[in-house]
């Protein structure tokens, strides 16, 4: 029954037909916008490798959030850039820490915007690793205590959803228990479940000043060649109480998103990370690609692979392009 009976071009004849048979759609409801929050007031410093993205003090982060909400974007994820860093990342649990302040300010101006907080120590430690060190190693179980305290502190400040990105073993269970014990059993956890040790985080680490001062993250983040291991990570995080599971980065791991979709029914988030964003921006600035077209093609590919939610620095642009 091949040609001439079947002509695939029949359904591609015009844009109305194409939209009738379209399998995947992008919607502003799919997006989470990442924001970098630094200490101080009236601060808005552009991140060199991420045009259109800024380090914002809590007051201006709140203004930015009002604009984000007005665009119809449902959620932001906040990353803190504290003034003081130390070996144990103690500013992460400070009730007046940069994130805690930002949450309270954002809630005033955009009460129905979902505030997700990134829970990880690398932005708060002087050595830039995602946990507490013992010698040159990250001490998994000691780190769990701090991550749990950090999560409770964010919840107390008014966070709607906690997103642990540290890749310690057992952290979802520990944080879940900590939140429940502190009276926050209603708050969901979005686990960075399959997070790879990726070169695509480069611009983020410059923005957050969080590159490790020695070694790298490959003893806790996943090895890029592994996909079956991602399924085990996801299964563990779900069994410990994760409500949403994330694959990160997105573009070089579309196969992983697809396999997770086939195996699990939980909502899947994918993080279109800083390096993926910067590549598109740089090529577009050189006039080598059409930014809007390529960015939307990337975002739809992440949806098509099976993600329900996309964390992306394109969220504001995409919201405008789609409206
Ligand atoms: C914190 C964290 C990182 C990112 C999100 N949370 C950096 C890292 O693991 O080094 C990267 C996000 C991006 O590149 O856009 N651990």
Can you offer a commentary on this structure?
By secondary structure, this protein is an alpha/beta fold. The chain has one domain (24-322): Aldolase class I (TIM Barrel, Alpha-Beta Barrel). Helices cover 38% and strands 18% of the residues. The chain contains 11 helices and 12 strands. It has helices at residues 15-20, 58-70, 98-109, 140-157, 171-181, 202-208, 228-239, 254-263, 274-285, 291-305, 315-322; strands at residues 31-38, 44-46, 54-56, 75-81, 114-119, 133-134, 137-138, 161-164, 188-195, 244-248, 268-272, 309-312. Strands 1-4-5-8-9-10-11-12 form an 8-stranded parallel beta barrel, surrounded by 9 helices. A two-stranded antiparallel ribbon has the order 6-7. Helix 2 packs across helix 3 (98-109), helix 4 (140-157) packs across helix 5 and helix 7 (228-239) packs across helix 8 (254-263). The radius of gyration is 20 Å and the shape is globular. The model has no long low-confidence stretch (mean pLDDT 97). Ligand PBG binds next to helix 6. Ligand PBG binds at residues 118, 120, 122, 130, 165, 201, 204-205, 273-274.
């Amino acid at each position: 029954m091949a040609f001439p009976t079947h002509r695939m071009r029949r359904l591609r004849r015009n844009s109305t037909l194409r939209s009738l048979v379209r399998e995947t759609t992008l919607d502003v409801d799919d997006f989470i916008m990442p924001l970098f929050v630094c200490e101080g007031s009236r601060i808005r410093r552009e991140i060199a490798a991420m045009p259109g993205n800024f380090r914002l003090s809590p007051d201006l982060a709140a203004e930015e959030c009002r604009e984000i909400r007005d665009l119809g974007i449902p959620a932001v994820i906040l990353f803190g850039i504290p003034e003081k860093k130390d070996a144990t990342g103690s500013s992460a649990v400070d009730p007046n820490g940069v994130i805690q302040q930002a949450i309270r300010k954002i809630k005033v101006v955009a009460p129905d915007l979902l505030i997700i907080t990134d829970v990880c120590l690398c932005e708060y430690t002087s050595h830039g690793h995602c946990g507490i060190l013992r010698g040159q190693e990250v001490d998994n179980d000691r780190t769990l205590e701090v991550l749990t305290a950090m999560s409770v502190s964010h919840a107390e400040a008014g966070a709607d959803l906690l997103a642990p990105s540290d890749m310690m073993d057992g952290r979802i269970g520990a944080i879940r228990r900590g939140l429940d014990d502190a009276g926050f059993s209603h708050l969901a956890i979005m686990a960075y479940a399959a997070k790879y040790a990726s070169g695509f985080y480069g611009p983020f680490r410059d923005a957050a000043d969080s590159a490790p001062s020695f070694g790298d993250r490959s003893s806790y983040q996943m090895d890029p060649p592994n996909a079956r291991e991602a399924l085990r990570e996801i299964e563990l995080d779900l069994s410990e109480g994760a409500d949403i599971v994330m694959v990160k980065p997105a573009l070089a791991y579309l196969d992983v998103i697809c396999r997770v979709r086939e195996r699990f029914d939980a909502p899947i988030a994918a993080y279109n990370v800083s390096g993926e964003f910067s590549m598109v921006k740089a090529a577009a600035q050189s006039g080598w690609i059409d930014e809007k077209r390529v960015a939307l093609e990337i975002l739809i590919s992440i949806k098509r692979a099976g993600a329900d939610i996309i964390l992306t620095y394109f969220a504001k642009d995409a919201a405008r392009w789609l409206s």
